[in-house]
């Protein structure tokens, strides 16, 4: 069973109803380019079902999200010739989460980019 929120942009991208530059998909996760990237190649990984916070995911789905991040991170790094990546979740509004659909950020980093985003 899947669940989505009609007001959620990431549910819209997963459903193909909102344009998104999808870079990878598994049965239960989707990765797409961030619309306002902090660096070229900034990618988001989401569970296809709508859940607000990381702790709302079951362990299986959390593992699949992490597996997608794990597989994608070196590919993102190579695609933009980055030196490293920051991989992060803003988990809840007080942590800066603006879109209430769990998403992991893969942010390419460069040795001369001046430090933490
Ligand atoms: P947060 O602050 O919630 O961790 O990050 C939300 C991220 O989603 C931001 O980096 C923002 O640029 C990105 N974003 C917000 N709306 C959209 C959208 O409609 N499409 C895409 N591709 N990215 C979005
Ligand atoms: Zn959603």
Low-pLDDT stretches: none
Question: Could you say what the CATH architecture is?
Answer: 2-Layer Sandwich
Largest sheet: 5 strands, antiparallel
Number of helices: 2
The total count of strands amounts to 5
Provide the succession of SSEs.
Answer: HEEEHEE
Radius of gyration: 14 Å
Properties at a glance:
single chain, about 120 residues, HIT family, subunit A, 5-stranded antiparallel beta sheet, binds guanosine-5'-monophosphate, Histidine triad protein
Give a written overview of the molecule.
The protein is an alpha+beta fold and 117 residues long. The protein has one domain: 2-Layer Sandwich (HIT family, subunit A). It is built from 2 helices and 5 strands; from the N terminus they run αβββαββ. It has a 5-stranded antiparallel sheet with strand order 1-2-3-5-4, with helices on both faces. Strand 1 and strand 2 form a beta hairpin. Zinc ion binds next to helix 1.
């Amino acid at each position: 069973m899947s669940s989505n929120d009609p007001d959620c942009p990431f549910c819209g991208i997963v459903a193909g109803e909102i344009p998104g530059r999808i870079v990878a998909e598994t049965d239960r996760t989707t990765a797409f380019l961030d619309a306002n990237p902090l660096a070229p190649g900034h990618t988001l990984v989401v569970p296809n079902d709508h859940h607000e916070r990381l702790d709302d995911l079951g362990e299986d789905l959390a593992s699949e999200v992490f597996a997608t991040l794990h597989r994608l991170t070196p590919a993102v790094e190579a695609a933009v010739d980055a030196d490293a990546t920051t991989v992060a979740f803003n988990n809840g509004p007080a942590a800066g989460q603006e879109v209430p659909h769990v998403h992991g950020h893969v942010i390419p980093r460069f040795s001369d980019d001046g430090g933490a985003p």
